Amino acid sequence: NAGVTQTPKFRVLKTGQSMTLLCAQDMNHEYMYWYRQDPGMGLRLIHYSVGEGTTAKGEVPDGYNVSRLKKQNFLLGLESAAPSQTSVYFCASSNIRDRTPASQEYFGPGTRLTVT
Amino acid sequence: AQRVTQPEKLLSVFKGAPVELKCNYSYSGSPELFWYVQYSRQRLQLLLRHISRESIKGFTADLNKGETSFHLKKPFAQEEDSAMYYCALSGFFSGGYNKLIFGAGTRLAVHP
Q1: pLDDT band of A99, cuts 50, 70, 90
Q2: Which residues of A touch B83 (CB under 8 A)?
Q3: DSSP string for A48-82
Q4: Residue A35 confidence class, pLDDT cut points 50, 70, 90
Q5: By the CB < 8 Å criterion, does B82 face chain A?
Q6: What's chain B look like in SS3?
Q7: Cβ(B109)–Cβ(B13) below 8 Å
Q8: Interchain proximity B49–A104, CB inside 8 Å
Q9: Which burial class, exposed, middle or buried, applies to B30 when counting CB atoms under 10 A from its CB (0-12, 13-18, 19+)?
């Protein structure tokens, strides 16, 4: 049981390049999230998904796209990277169902992205 | 607006001293509050949540609805407590989906 895994761990991009971050979870969780972590800002929600085939915008969605084609995977895409997207990206999943109160989110190890 | 505020970016104490990490929240409904911790080079993990009324690693936190606070406390800090601590609020926001809102975090540094 690996929990939540993220690929890659590190990446350096040039402005304008594109890339996809992969998040995978083996806990059969319905909800998955992408956050970015910046100094002094805490974690901010980029996009989330409440189930396979569904996605929704979070707090800071601009410049990012996501897809949830399989329940266990949640992809975060940057179509044209900008220096402002330099950050640490965390994926998380949770077993929230049927609008019951939150239990816990399980986090991945993070992806450190630098855009030059 | 829903918000979690952690007023201190850094809290620096000596080993054995009491610790209180402050957290205030703003939420129109009945929230569920959490503390998450991130040790150096590790992933974020749940420390405790108000609904469980538990003590983890000597830490406790009490939800005060009157003051809309959920401060994290420990009577005697240890060096291994040094980490980044995030207060988080879970509730139902627009769209009806349950999400976590995080505070900016407080770095706790415990010195020998």
Answers
A1: very low
A2: none
A3: EEEETTEEEE-SS-TTEEEE-SSTTEEEEEESS--
A4: very high
A5: no
A6: CCEEECCCCEEEEECCCCEEECCEEECCCCCEEEEEEECCCCCCEEEEEHHHCCCECCEEECCECCCCECCEEECCCCHHHCEEEEEEEEEECCCCCEEEEECCCEEEEEEC
A7: yes
A8: yes
A9: exposed
Q: Apex CA B30: angle with CA A97 and CA B106, to 5°?
A: 90
What is the β-pairing status of strands B83-92 and B106-111? antiparallel
What rounded mean pLDDT belongs to chain B? 90
Residue found by looking up tokens 């980044």 in the block: B84
Nearest residue to A45 via CA among B85, B93, B52 = B93
Task: Return the closest-CA partner of residue A85 out of A54, A45, A113, A106.
Answer: A113
- For B43, which of A41, A42, A108 is closest by C-beta distance? A108
Cα distances (angstroms) measured from residue B103 to each of A58, B39, B108: 15, 17, 15
pLDDT at A94: 87
Which residue does chain A place closest to B37, by CA atoms? A107
